[in-house]
Write a sequence for this structure.
């Protein structure tokens, strides 16, 4: 199994995790777009991400169910994770090597602005479909 490795801009925080699926996803929700200035391109860690330099990680409770982490030194986005369970994504751009990963799914597609579009053929899920997937409703 491949091990993904990455770090923030200043190198204070490092991350590694086994890649279970060689894919990345895009989130078009308003919160991801506001946080990153565009759609969130992320890789699922399977809850197995190991961070070095934890003293440089700041965590923001972005909702009742999730948190976003960033480097206190340089501001690099480090993760989006659920407060309950093991779900954790890291930004695609954080990884040292990501060229072999395939674009898999776009979520919150009904929230995506009309001023951009990806040409890749992917699975597409609406906000309601994503919420149902995570909550079982």
């Amino acid at each position: 199994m491949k091990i993904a490795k990455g770090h923030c801009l200043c190198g204070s925080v490092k991350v590694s995790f086994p890649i279970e699926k060689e894919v990345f996803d895009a989130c078009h929700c308003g919160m991801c777009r506001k946080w990153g200035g565009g759609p969130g391109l992320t890789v699922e860690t399977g809850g197995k991400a190991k961070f070095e330099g934890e003293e440089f990680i700041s965590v923001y409770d972005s909702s009742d169910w999730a948190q976003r982490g960033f480097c206190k030194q340089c501001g690099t986005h480090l993760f989006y994770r659920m407060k309950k369970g093991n779900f954790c994504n890291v930004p695609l751009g954080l990884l040292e090597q990501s060229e072999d990963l395939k674009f898999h799914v776009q979520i919150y597609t009904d929230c995506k602005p009309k001023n951009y579009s990806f040409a890749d053929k992917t699975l597409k899920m609406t906000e309601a479909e994503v919420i149902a997937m995570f909550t079982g409703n």
